## 1
Amino acid sequence: MKRCKVTFQPVNQEIYVSPGITVKDAINLAGFEFDFPCGGRGKCGKCRLQIPTGAVAPTPAEQELLDEESLAKDFRLACLARITGDTVVELPYVTTPKHQILIAAVEKQIRLEPHLNKIYLEMDPPDLQHQQPDWEHLRDSTEQAGLTAGDKPALELLRALPQTLRAANWRVTVLADQEKIWGVEPLNTTDRLLGIAFDIGTTTVVGYLLDLRTGQELAAVSALNPQTRYGADVITRIAFASHEEGGLSELHEAIISELNGLIGEAAGQAGMQREDIYTVSVVGNTTMHHLFLGINPGNLALAPYIPVLQQPMVLTARELGLQVNPAGMIYALPNIAGYVGADTVGVLLATDLDWSEGIKLAIDIGTNGEIVLGSKERLVACSTAAGPAFEGSQISGGMRGTIGAIDHVRFDDGLKFTVIGGGRAQGICGSGLLDAVAGLLQQGIMDFRGRILSPDQLTAEAERYADRSVKLESGVKAFVLATAPETVDGRPIMITQGDIRELQLAKGAIAAGIQVLLERLGCDLDAVAEVLLAGAFGNYLDPHSACAIGLIPQALESRVRPVGNAAGAGAKAALLSRSEYRRAGMIADFTEYVELSAYPNFSHLFASCLNFPLG
Ligand code: FES
C-alpha cells in the first residue's frame, strides 16, 4: 500500500502514514501535543487547523463547524479530515509545547520516614564451621543491624542472592521496609535512595524527584498527560476505556509510558540513574487513579458513580512496568469517592485540613471542581462538573493556560490584558475569562443575569466600550476582548453570551457546592477561617475576580489563600513519610462525601447561584 507523506509546518517534520487515517492520528503519531477537547468526535470544532496541501473535501460536520471563509482557505478539523495523499499540515501552536504548570507547593514540615530503608552489611563468609544458608544468614545479619527481614523472601531475590553475596565478597546493601527485605545490592549503595512523587492530572502530569534520606527535592518535571489525545475530560476517557476495544490498556500504557519518560528525565536532571529510585507515590483524580492502575473506570460514568476501590494501594513497580529500581515500590494514595479522588486526599494531607482547629474551605479547580469544608472535627466534600469552562474547552476563544493565552484582564484604566509568554493572543484561559467577566460586570457592560448590554443600554461610564459590544451574524451578543491585530490568527477573541453562560454554569455549580457543604456542616460563612485555593488554576486566578462573580462568596475574599499544587505536595509527603501515607488512608475514611445530584434542593440552590452578585 502506498504511504502518504505528511509534512508538519512550521517545524518541517515529516512522517509517513497509511492513507485513510485522520490528521489527528498523524499528529499523535508524530508525537506533537495538540488539544482534542471533545476527544476527536467532531463535536467541538476546536481542532481547527490549515491543510495547505492535500486537504480533502470537508465532511458535513466540518461544513457545519467551520465558516465558509475558513473552508475556502483549507482549514479543516484535524479529527475529521482524512489523509489520502501527500499532505502539508500547518500546526497553529504546537511548536512551543511548554505548558505553564505549577510546581511550587505549600510548605509542610514532616518527619522523614521513608517506606524503604537501606542498610549496609559486612557479613562473615560461611565456612565449614558456620554452614548457615544464604537467606538465613542475610536475614539474621539484617535483623541484627536493626531492620526487619521478614520470613517470606521473594523467589526472585533468592535466585539472585548467592551470586550477589559472593560477587560482592559478602559486602551488600539490604533494602527493606517494615515487613520484609525487597532487594539486596552489591557493596555500599546507602548514599542512593531516591523516590518520585507524581501528581497525575487530567491535563498535566507533574513529578518531583526527592532524596528520601534528606527530603531534598532534586528535580521537578512535567508533561502533558498523553491521554489528552483521547479527550480533554474524564468522561470522554472513561467512555474510551469502556467502549473501545483495547481502550483501557491504551490509556493505561499511555500514562505508564509518560511516567517512565519523566522518571528518566528527572533522574537525568539530578545526575542520577532511574535505578536509584526505589519508591513512587501517586495522586490523581479517581479516573486517573484507575487508569494508572489499569482498572476500568466505567462505573464512574454511571449513577451511582462507584469507584472500584477507595483504599490506599501498595504494589511493586514491576507489576505496573514502572522503570525504576527492580525492587521499587508504588504507593497510590486512596480515593474518597468517584469524583473526589486521591488528588483531593493529597490536598488535605498537604494542608493538614484534617488537623485544623478552625473550619477551612479547600477548593481545587481542575477539570472538575473538588470542594472540602471542615476541620479536625469533621470534613465534608463534594465535586462539581466545573472544569471545562475554566480549562477553556467550552469557551469560543478558550484554551488552556499555556503560551498565547490571555491570563489576566484589567479594566481600571482602559481595557488591558496580559498574554502568557508575551506577544499576540491566541485565546483566553480560565483566569483571563474570570477577570474579563468580572470586569464586564463591574464596568456595567453586562448585567447581573449575565446579559451583555447593547451599546444603547450602557451607562456613561461604560460607553467607552460601546464599540466592543457587538452582535455576531448569528445574532449572539459578544464583547470583543482582543481585536484582530492583537491576535495570532488575525481573528478577534470574543467573550460571547454563550461563554458567559458556560462560566455561569461552572461558577454556579461551585458556589452551590459550597452552600451544600455549609448546610451539611451546619455552619455559616462567618465560621470559615480560611479559603485554600489549590491547583494551578487556583493559583493563577485573581481572588478578587473569583469573588466578584460569586464563584467564591464575597464575604470570604480577605480569607482566600492560594496553596499551589497542594495535591503534589501531598504526594511528596506520602513519599517521604510512612505516617503521612497512612494518614492519607485515614483522611479518605474520615471525609464524608456528599453526592450533589442526590442532595435535596440542589437544583434550586444551583439555579439561585447562577446570577452574578449585585455589587
Ligand atoms: S472537533 Fe476535533 S477535537 Fe473536537
Note: Residues 36-38, 40, 42-47, 77-79 surround FE2/S2 (inorganic) cluster (CB under 6 Å).
## 2
Amino acid sequence: MFVVTIDAEKCTGCGECVDNCPVSILELVDGKAEVVGDDCMGCESCVEVCSTGAVTVQEF
Ligand code: SF4
Ligand code: SF4
C-alpha cells in the first residue's frame, strides 16, 4: 500500500495535487491539502505537481 503525507508547513494550498490525483483522495481543508482516502495507487502525480515539495508518497 501507499501512504501519502502532506507537510502542512510547506503546503501553500494551491490545489494542484487535488486537481491531479486520479483517484481523488486529496482535498483542500482550511487551505491545506489533506488525504481523505486510502486508495492511493502510487502514481506520484501529486509529488510532481507540488512546487513546494510538501507531498511524499511511501510504499509499505
Ligand atoms: S500541490 Fe503542494 S502546495 Fe499545492 S495544495 Fe498540494 S501539497 Fe499543497
Ligand atoms: S500518488 Fe497518485 S494516487 Fe496517490 S495521492 Fe498522489 S496523485 Fe493521488
Note: The domain at 2-59 is CATH 3.30.70.20 (Alpha-Beta Plaits).
